[in-house]
Amino acid sequence: MIFDWFKKKEKYSDLPDFWREYSDKFEKKRPEKIEDTRFVVFDTETTGFDFDDDRILSIGAVNVQNKSIEIKDNFEIFLQQDKFNPETVQIHGIIRNEKVNKLSEYEALQKFIEYIEDSVLVAHHAGFDLKMINNALNRQGLPKLKNSILDTAVLYKKTRIISNFIDREKIYSLDEIAEAYNFDLSDRHTASGDAYITALILMRLLGKYYKSKDLRLKDLLKYKV
After folding, report:
1. Does residue 134 belong to any structural domain of this protein?
2. Which tops the pLDDT comparison, 58 or 5?
3. Does 9 map to a domain?
């Protein structure tokens, strides 16, 4: 046991303080109840969909805890654009010389890591956002994210299959689910706007899970990415 502790310390000895502090948070026991869990719903806007060549333009996130969206506990950053794709500007609206404070990729990742801590991360079609973040971490010489990650697209299908009102093979977009729940889509295609819409969807989905009094976080995490 002591040997394992020294191996862990040696493994992370060459990593920055913020990463070691982040990693240490996963040593504590996670909450058992969903309502005691901190979920961080996040989204990325990128220059495109190529995991190797494209880059993150912005990251938006919001905290969901105790059956409510903590609006004041939100996160939004813009990254310096070393790569520019004019074709995607019409989607996310982030122009190359936009006058907002922009951080380097390393600085942005540090702030994101410090914000998410050991929370359960949530995104829509989470595999894309997760890989973009992990690729960025790799470019900066950092390990992959340690958080458990849920996908609202997967959760949506799981809650609806029970009633057989859903195509089991269909991949539902954020727009389709939001429209099904009559959510306003005016802030679509900004990282913070998409994170907030995804948080609303998560709240609606969790409402279905709360009906099961015996449900625990471990049951929800059966659907993690």
Report:
1. yes
2. 58
3. no
Rounded (to 5) percent helix, strand, coil in the chain: 45, 20, 35
Rounded-to-integer distance, Cα 224 and Cα 63, Å: 18
- Any idea what the CATH number is for the domain that residue 58 is in? 3.30.420.10
21 inside domain: no
> What is the tens place of the pLDDT at every residue in 110-166?
999 999 999 999 999 999 999 999 999 999 999 999 999 999 999 988 776 555 555
Closest by CA position to 119, among listed 138, 143, 146: 146
In degrees, rounded to 5, the angle at the alpha carbon of residue 153 between the alpha carbons of residues 107 and 198 is 50
Q: Is there a contact between 77 and 108 (Cβ–Cβ < 8 Å)?
A: yes
Q: Is the pTM of this model over 0.90?
A: no
**pLDDT score for 9:** 53
The total number of structural domains in the chain stands at 1
| DSSP SS3 for 179 | helix
Alpha helices in the chain (DSSP H): 2-11, 17-24, 86-92, 105-116, 126-139, 152-161, 174-180, 191-210, 217-220
